[in-house]
Specification:
Blueprint lengths: L1 H36 L7 H22 L8 H5 L2 H33 L12 H5 L1 H35 L5
Pfam families: DctQ
Subcellular location: Cell inner membrane
Main location: membrane
Length: 172
Amino acid sequence: MLTNIKKSVARVVMIVAAALTVVMVAGAFWQVFTRYVLGDPSTYTTELLKFMLMWVAMLGAAYAFSKNEHLAIVFLKNKLKNNKAVTLQWLIDGLVIAFTLAVLIIGGWDLATSTMGQRTPILNIPMGWVYMILPLSGTLIIFFQLINISERKKEMAEQQDSSKSDGEVIRE
């Protein structure tokens, strides 16, 4: 059930990020067209593209966590065996959640709410809405990470059950 919810949320995140990317490409073409063909560059596209890039990057990071394909340094983990590798993975999971909670959710929320009064120079939107991607993506990352942990625990339990049943001798 959690896996299905994770897949659905990840799909929405991917669709939103893809839509923003399409708009970014169109905006970049528009910027080039107005600058070099019309000789009068569009005033709003540069600012809009910068803000959209932030949103796409942070949504992409959350999506990577949904697929468990986030940037990770696996060198040490690959050198460790069995229990040590599992312990390291639990430590990494805890650090990811703690960092995401402290920096993206709490810090991002503070940044977003404290800058709601500042307006962007060209688009005239509150900067807080631009920065709101930080707590949003942080929430998504923790959501996906907790489900990844749950799935990993389930896999480990299934492996233990299968190894126990492989070692049992059936007596009649």
